[in-house]
Amino acid sequence: xxxxxxxxxxxxxxxxxxxxxxxxxxxxxxxxxxxxxxxxxxxxxxxxxxxxxxxxxxxxxxxxxxxxxxxxxxxxxxxxxxxxxxxxxxxxxxxxxxxxxxxxxxxxxxxxxxxxxxxxxxxxxxxxxxxxxxxxxxxxxxxxxxxxxxxxxxxxxxxxxxxx
Length: 164
Description:
Layout: E1 21-23, H1 30-37, E2 42-54, E3 63-78, H2 82-91, E4 96-101, E5 110-115, H3 126-132, H4 134-146
Parallel strand pairs: 1-5
Antiparallel strand pairs: 1-3, 2-3, 4-5
Helix pairs in contact: 1-4
């Protein structure tokens, strides 16, 4: 993937090819990836020490925040095309920053989206999300992919919503 194909913004930092992405929230679910990309790229389980997957106020999806002596669990997506990177970047809120991190047990750094504003003090619950929200989240993600302009709220396709 050439960086010229990715344009500016957050993706302008990606130079060269074969970039991997650490995902720790909704993007680790094949249903959401299929809705957004039309396929499931290679997924490999991974952990990131010194970070946690935080619940976010009034949102169904999490944010990655620094947390000493904690460990965020997720997956590494690899084999993404330039157009897939563009889709995933558009899917992420403006409150995320694309940064490189070093995952446990991997030599090469990978990219991830780090949450940059206030997060809840509790962790996001992957299993709860899967049981209560995954089906509707994937369906809404598919609608967003077909017509992103129809989603006007600033929280993007992940939507603010009641999370009890």
